[in-house]
Write a structure and sequence with these properties.
Blueprint (H helix, E strand, L loop, with lengths): L1 E9 L2 E8 L7 E10 L2 H9 L1 E2 L2 E2 L4 E2 L3 E9 L11 E4 L2 E2 L5 H4 L10 E2 L16 E5 L3 E3 L7 H4 L2 H13 L11 E5 L3 H12 L4 E5 L3 H10 L4 E3 L6 H7 L7 E6 L4 H10 E9 L11 H6 L3 E4 L8 H9 L9 E6 L3 H9 L8 E5 L3
Parallel strand pairs: 13-14, 13-16, 14-15, 16-17, 17-18, 19-20
Antiparallel strand pairs: 1-2, 1-6, 3-7, 3-11, 3-20, 4-5, 7-8, 8-12, 9-10
Helix pairs in contact: 4-5, 4-10, 7-8
Length: about 350
Amino acid sequence: MKTRVCRLYGQGDIRIEEADVAAPGPGEVLVAMAAGGICGSDLHYYQDGGFGPIRVREPIVLGHEVAGTVRAVGAGVEGVAPGDRVAVNPSRPCNACRYCLDGLQQHCLAMRFFGSALRFPHEQGGFRDLMVVDAFQCVRVDNPEVSLAEAACAEPLAVCLHALNRAGASAGNLAGKSVLVTGAGPIGILALLTARAFGATRLFVSDVNDTRLALAAEVVPGVVAINPAREDVGERVRAGTQDGIGCDVALECVGNDRALQSCLDAVRKQGVIVQTGLHPGKGSVDFFQLTFKDAEIRGSWCYPTHGWPRTIELIASGAIPARRVVTKRIALDEAVAEGFEALLDPAGSQLKILIDLSR
């Protein structure tokens, strides 16, 4: 069998090519991919040839936000069958190291992750027509009213769920709380939708891009949109919270010092800041303010794999309308011009661009 693949050879060099596909072996599943979302990390690979210390050292098929339909299964596979619609978890932890055994698969010492250049040889990704995956990566999407395009949003939503868990938040226990999100991109807006689903009543979002702020206000009615190029984020958030004390939780979804400092300015005493955006390197914040506020800054990396069924459930139930961050859908052959290049447009008129991998 043959499949088309979206393969990156280096900075700015993506080619749509053909590759061979083997039949699924024991414990494996052949998936006909239907939808794939272009993530910020995919964009970094295309624009910069990597991010942080991670560099592309050989051709790599991109893509890790994918969903499709099971076409065939290998020996011993249970739980999924041909014809099942599935969201595909891109994480392949070893399930044997200390972190995996503690339920922290996102820190697996031998993690393999679709479309990642962290290891060499690189882990190939899911932007393709057909792909053989491990059966445990497939989470069924049983609700026929949930499209595979929506299911492909499970991966970025899982990132947001883990970030809020790191903040100590879960369904219901943000009731009456206030939340700031820096960055009105797909992760930022999904984080706002998740915070609202978990009970938050005061929501704030900051971004230097007015177009994205407008999209955030459209997707999350009632959110207070702040452009830090014109307003002081901390002052605006404090003015919008009870007694002017600041927000309870701040999620930094940009990945730079200025956004992190905005979170520290805006959060109340003993508030929690979660660093979710990928910061390019060492930075600095006002540590006196951190100490004075008795606040916390916590990192949030990826997500544990055991949370995926819950992620799909939240999408399928309509509790979190993840589909609302999708602003454009394109064919695989249009990936470069209509996908990656469109997301690099400084005007920022797109949120999540999905590649229709079935055409």
